[in-house]
């Protein structure tokens, strides 16, 4: 479970923990406090976002009920959205950098 600093939550900056990214890549589901990242990354399976204590508890219960499905989804999310081989090119293009 990832609880963000209040400034990241209040600003909806999209902050996302590098530790959470590592967990996803290793097939470990993540429950993270909403900071705006949920607008850029898919949530619901493998990565669950919460805004309240009740939502966090529900997310933990959901993962406990379907651990294999969430583990598989976590790894797939990392491969699709966090793999440097896919993300770096897009970042360089957005910055106008020559490859």
Widest β-sheet, arrangement of strands: 1-2
What share of residues is helical?
40-55%
Helix count equals: 5
Record field, number of beta strands: 2
Secondary-structure element string: HHEEHHH
Q: Give the termini distance in whole angstroms.
A: 37 Å
Point out poorly predicted stretches: none
Sheet bearing the most strands, described? Answer: 2 strands, parallel
Radius of gyration based on Cα positions: 14 Å
Overall pLDDT, averaged? 94
Inertia-based shape: flat
Strand percentage lies at 5-15%
Class computed from helices, strands and strand pairing? mainly alpha
Describe the overall structure.
- The structure is a single chain.
- This protein is flat.
- It is built from five helices and two strands, in the order H-H-E-E-H-H-H.
- The termini are far apart.
- The protein has 99 residues and is mostly helical.
Task: Tag the structure with descriptive keywords.
single chain, 2 strands, mainly alpha, flat, two-stranded parallel sheet, 99 residues
Provide the fold topology.
Layout: H1 6-11, H2 18-25, E1 30-33, E2 47-50, H3 53-65, H4 67-81, H5 84-95
Parallel strand pairs: 1-2
Helix pairs in contact: 2-4
Structure described in brief:
With 99 residues, this protein is mostly helical. Helices cover 55% and strands 8% of the residues.
